[in-house]
Amino acid sequence: MDDPKLVEDIVHALDIEGGSAKRRPVHTIGIGATGVFEPSPVAKDFCTAEHFQPTEKPLEVAVRFSNGMGLVKEHDGWSDVRGMAVRFKLSNDRATDLISMTLPVFFAPTPETFLQFATAARPKECNRETPWQKIRDFLKLQIPMPDPYPGQETRPNEGATEFADKHAYAQPAVLQASVIGAPVSYVRASYHAVHTFIVTDPDGTDRWVRFNWQPIAGVLNTNPLDPPVGVYLKEDLEKRLAHGIERFSLMMTIGETGDDFNDSTKQWPPHRKRVMMGLLTLNDVPKDQEAHAEKLSFNPWLLTDGIRPSEDPVLKIRKDVYEFSSNRRGGIPCPFSGTEG
Known about the structure:
Layout: H1 4-14, E1 30-39, H2 43-46, E2 59-67, E3 82-89, E4 95-101, H3 111-120, E5 124-125, H4 131-139, E6 154-155, H5 157-166, H6 171-178, E7 191-200, E8 206-215, H7 233-243, E9 246-254, E10 274-284, H8 289-294, E11 307-309, H9 313-329
């Protein structure tokens, strides 16, 4: 662990009233699902990792969907970032993880600046802006502060927005997070692994890439003009997988010269080459959610040969932050293998 105090400070900054040290500090509420992953015919040409190689039998996967808030109480209908963590089960009891969220960029470029952001964005008393204040925001080319939900007394919006006004690097993520809305289903959202990874092809060529999951069913949010629905995402997933399957395409975007490979606050141009690397099929929601999702410890550094991390400093510290959080809540230890780091 490079800086134990910084790791602990980040986790503690993410702890908020209404959360629990016995749960994850963020993405606290979630549900696990199982399924299989099949690589595309061209995946092997771009990466030598085991889960991208042809196989007679699809690889089993464990998936956890989650709400971004660090609250134990569920608010599925609120505008919030959602998460999707996928564990690919490899041969010889090994595994590799891919962790993503519904934002394409992160909030800060370094661990130190993320600690500053997390501290500033701790929930504060929220107030409804007047129509005149909203007009003023528009004239200043700012997004007006969203109205609080019924019964909502605190939220991170005020602090996060004030921080972003002073730090340009936080503006893309904060802006998108403030208007992201609520998906009608966990399987009707797209998810981005915001950090850059390096993949190696059979010829030994390295490529700097970013991954994202695209739902086959398409992206769809609830109507923001309707009153927010309370709790529905878990039940929706259970019903869907009790009567059928749901699928995601794994897309890989290849970076080019001029793209920032080590700063996850920087979005790459939309015209970069994308490769369809495989198909994820969800087929069941396990009854034992503690063992299959809540006690499971995902980690973006659980990698395998053929994929290695970039020099992104936030990605680097996430390894220790996730381990510290897992140990604190009594999670199953991460089964590190391959390029453990």
